Amino acid sequence: MFASSLQYKPLSDEDLRCYENEHWAEMTKVLEQHAAVVKELMEVINTCLCNKQEGWLQTLFDIVSSSAYQKVKSGRDELLVLERVCNLAEREGVERKSILFEVSSVSDVFELYYRTVFYIRRFEMELADELCKEIIPFMEEWEITPEYLLMVMESDAIIDWNGAGNRLSNFFLQYGYSVYGQAILTWMLGKIAENS
Q1: How far apart are CA 42 and CA 48, in angstroms?
Q2: What b-and-e string marks burial along 141-169, b requiring 16 or more CB atoms within 10 Å of the CB?
Q3: pLDDT for position 142
């Protein structure tokens, strides 16, 4: 219950300006701290990816799972993508060579991810076979694994995962990439069972 002596009244223009100035300074300070943490993390990550010294992959996994990284990743697409790629690499273990071995910076990881989205979107939008076939040299150049393709297909960038998955799996099976085609079919069956 409120005390009867408390009165609510509109803020004067001067009170409002003081309030805004006080909070603007706080917000500016928080944003500066956030930017400093992001810059420091990016420098360490880029050094890790560029030099690939002993234990670099575990160091990268530790950074991505750190509380500092978790606090600043929101709203930073490149950090969100890096986290997904690292989580995949950790799950894949030593059986598969992660694309992290092929890149030397966070921007490389981000660019490769969106180039993969770009190729998958060609299937999603039912573009001509000639354009779709360009995914093969891209995959071979970057040693893209089926798991990596599936990680990208699960992203929000692919709207019609079912249509894209059907066309991709048929394409891979037709052109002799059965491991990829089977992986996509298995993933799709799992998604259908999940959604029913």
Answers
A1: 10
A2: eeebbbbbbbbbbebeebeebeebbebbb
A3: 92
